[in-house]
C-alpha cells in the first residue's frame, strides 16, 4: 500500500504541487494511478481532491502541473482584498480577511460536479466541525458505501480550506441531504495529516501492507519571535502568530511521530522558506516565483529520496 500526505499552507501549496509534478514526470503516470490513498489538509486537501478527480475517460482529469495553476493563476484572485474589505474587516481583525468569491470560483472550475465517492484513489481530507466540536474526516471509502457520508468535492475542498480569520467557515451537505455540517480548516488539529492517514490504514487492517508514506510539506516557518518582543503581548498581538505556531508545532510533532512509528517507510520532503514568504496568503508575483524556486531547490536537494520514492510508487 502506498500513501501520499499533503500539508496545509495556503498559497505555499505550490511547493508540493511542483514536487508531485516532478514525480509524475519521472514515472510517466499521474498521482492517482501511483498511490492507494491521498490524505490532505487545507491546501493539501484541495490538491487531494484535484489529483483524484476523474475525467470523462475514467483517468485522472488533472496532472499535478495543471493543479499548480490553482496557485499561479487563481492565487492572486483568491487572496485579493478590495479597499472596502480592508476597511470593514479592519484588515482582518473583525471579519475574515478575504471574500469567498475567488476561492469558490476556482474550486468550481477545477472540481466541477464530482463527488467524494467518485475519487479515483481513496481520499482522506481533514476539517473541524465547530458545532459539535470534533475532528471531521471526509473519507471516500465510506462515501462509496453510504450517501450520508458522500459530499461534492467542491464542498470538501472549501471546508478544509476554511482557514480561521482568512475565510469564513464553510457548510457541507451530504449528497443524501441528511445533514449540513459547519466546518473550518483541519489544520487546527492536523496540518500534517500523516498520522490521520496511518490511523485510517491501521483501522482498515492494512498497516502491514504499507510500503510507503510520502509526506509533503509546504515550507517551514522561519520567522522568529524574541522574548523581549512577546513578553507584553495580549490576545490581540498573539492572535495571528499563535495560529502559525500551532500549525507549525502540530506539523513537527506529527512528523516525529510518523517517522518513529514507520521508520524508512515514511519519507518527508520539506524545506525551510529561505527565499519565499511563510505567509499563507502572499500571492504576489514575486512570492509565487520565490515559492517555485523553493520547490526547485527542494527537488534538487532530494534526488536520492525522489529516486527511491519513484521506484516504489511505480513498482
Characterization of this structure:
- With 315 residues, the chain is α/β, with parallel strands linked by helices.
- The chain is 46% helix and 14% strand.
- The chain contains 16 helices and 8 strands.
- It has helices at 14-27, 31-34, 43-52, 64-67, 69-72, 75-78, 83-88, 101-111, 140-143, 153-160, 187-190, 194-203, 227-230, 235-262, 285-301, 303-314; strands at 2-6, 37-41, 122-129, 134-139, 170-173, 180-185, 212-216, 266-269.
- Strands 1, 2, 3, 4, 5, 6, 7 and 8 form an 8-stranded mixed beta sheet that branches.
- A hairpin with a 6-residue loop joins strand 5 and strand 6.
- Helix 1 (14-27) crosses helix 15 (285-301) and helix 8 (101-111) packs antiparallel against helix 10.
- The chain is globular and about 55 Å long.
- The model is unreliable at 83-90 (pLDDT under 50).
Q: Helices and strands in order, then pairings?
A:
Blueprint: E1 2-6, H1 14-27, H2 31-34, E2 37-41, H3 43-52, H4 64-67, H5 69-72, H6 75-78, H7 83-88, H8 101-111, E3 122-129, E4 134-139, H9 140-143, H10 153-160, E5 170-173, E6 180-185, H11 187-190, H12 194-203, E7 212-216, H13 227-230, H14 235-262, E8 266-269, H15 285-301, H16 303-314
Parallel strand pairs: 1-2, 1-7, 2-3, 7-8
Antiparallel strand pairs: 3-4, 3-6, 5-6
Helix pairs in contact: 1-15, 3-10, 8-10
